[in-house]
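Hi F.,

I've been meaning to write this up properly since the lab meeting, where we talked about keeping a consistent format for the predictions we share between groups. The idea is simple: the sequence comes first, exactly as it goes in, then the structure tokens exactly as they come out, then a line or two of notes. No screenshots and no reformatting. I'm using this chain as the first example so we have something concrete to point to.
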Amino acid sequence: MTYNLNSRCIVRSRYTLLAASLVGLVGCSDSSTGSSGLSGTLSFSYSGDLSGSFSATGSLPLSGQNTVAWAVGGRDAAEEWVAAQASQPQSGGTYNYVIVIIPRITVGTSNIDANCSAATCAAVLFELGVNDGAGTSQQTCFLDAGTVAITSISGRRAQGTFSGTGTCISSVNANSNVNITGGTFDVALLTGVVP
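Output, unedited:
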């Protein structure tokens, strides 16, 4: 299977901007404790050509977001999406990162479709070995098929699941297959994007 890097880079850019805006909203908080107080968890296992697990639990810090584990969510009622994102620090100043996009604001399941052309598509992106200083990651992975679901949602928290199959692209542009199983999240929703 040939992986369409150009279309996935466009999707990655859109969701990277979304992730940055979620982090930016927390940075506007007036808390002086160093933590946003927005605690959550996000975890999954991955297998295929790559294998391992991701697990992050904690509050998003107001600075140094890549030095501690955290998970947080956001919701946009106008555009009807919920997002959960998390970071897991690694050795050498790198980190692993994931964002899950669900194009709904109610309980239910959405299918991941690699050919989706809607304004907001169901998506799961994760990066391994991200190095912000160098602007690189060891692996960038997308699910091409699967499901994302919201199992519970309130004004302050969202819980859900995700799984599917996809492709990873290494830092030297080598493609590999990946399967995600057991994906779960339980995250506080940022008040800056809650109606």
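Notes:
The first helix runs from residue 5 to 27.
The first strand starts at residue 35 and ends at 48.

If this format works for you, I'll send the rest the same way.

G.
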